[in-house]
Design brief:
Rossmann fold, 7-stranded parallel sheet, about 15% strand
Length: about 260
């Protein structure tokens, strides 16, 4: 189906690479104009410039603007939303995608590492969702959709991610409670929980020995996921196809979580 997001303004955090980049492309292909957040680094700036060129090729009539910031800064949620409105006049969808994932053994996790993951992966997402909800309410339209990117590790353990998994479990908790709170306003909250997705974030870990092959072998579909697999699920939650769906999370893991062999 084409045009699922026609006339919608979609804001995506962490959009310069990986799942965020794939989500931007998938949303543009469905007719959305985009507000693209990225970090203020030379690599991110280069990546976002390349992405903008690709988005323009998809549909030159759509408008895509960018915003660079550390989303953990106190004023960023307010500024983020204000900039989106200044650029596009409204906000229909927020995709809380930005996140960090540093692999570490349990005994080597420091307080600073734990707090940094919590700040980026949970607190920033919560505050951005709150700011977006306020704007969607003021617009007086048909509400809006907030899509949070969680992780399969929110419910399944990982010895190398004892500091990361709790932040994604917090996202699941936020998602269901905010769905109840924002439902009367017509605003939906849903989660996409990826399994192992091949991105630059986990490439180094997957390259260790035959780890990639072993992990793919545990998945019933016999492959690891791609950013496009996750992006397609985000489009569903962002679009009116899911207009009576809220407070839910969808595992995009190739069936890995159901394989007990």
């Amino acid at each position: 189906m084409n045009g699922l997001l026609r006339n919608k303004i979609v804001a995506i955090t962490g959009s310069s690479s990986g799942i965020g980049r794939a989500t931007a492309i998938a949303c543009a292909k469905q007719g959305a104009s985009l507000f693209l957040h990225h970090l203020n680094t030379s690599t991110a700036k280069k990546d976002i410039s390349t992405l903008q060129a690709e988005l323009e090729a998809i549909d030159p009539l759509l408008t895509h603007t960018t915003y660079s910031a550390d989303i953990t800064a106190p004023d960023v949620p307010r500024i983020f939303t204000a900039k989106a409105i200044s650029d596009h006049g409204r906000l229909d969808v927020l995709v809380n995608n930005a996140g960090i994932c540093t692999f570490s053994t349990y005994q080597n996790v420091t307080k600073e590492l734990l707090e940094r993951h919590l700040s980026v992966n949970f607190t920033a997402a919560y505050m951005l969702a709150q700011a977006a909800t306020a704007q969607m309410t003021v617009q007086g339209s048909d509400g809006g959709s907030i899509v949070n990117i969680a992780s399969i590790t929110a419910t399944l353990g990982s010895a190398q991610l004892t500091h990361y998994s709790p932040t994604k479990a917090a996202i699941l908790g936020m998602n269901v409670s905010c769905a109840v709170a924002a439902g009367p306003l017509g605003i939906r909250f849903n989660c996409v929980s990826p399994g192992t997705i091949e991105t630059t974030m986990n490439k180094e870990d997957l390259d260790l020995g035959d780890k990639r092959q072993k992990m793919a072998g545990r998945v019933p579909l016999r492959r690891l996921g791609t950013p496009d697999d996750v992006a397609n699920a985000v489009v569903f939650f962002a679009s009116d196809l899911s207009r009576y769906v809220t407070g839910q999370y969808l595992l995009v893991d190739g069936g890995g979580s159901i394989n007990y062999q």
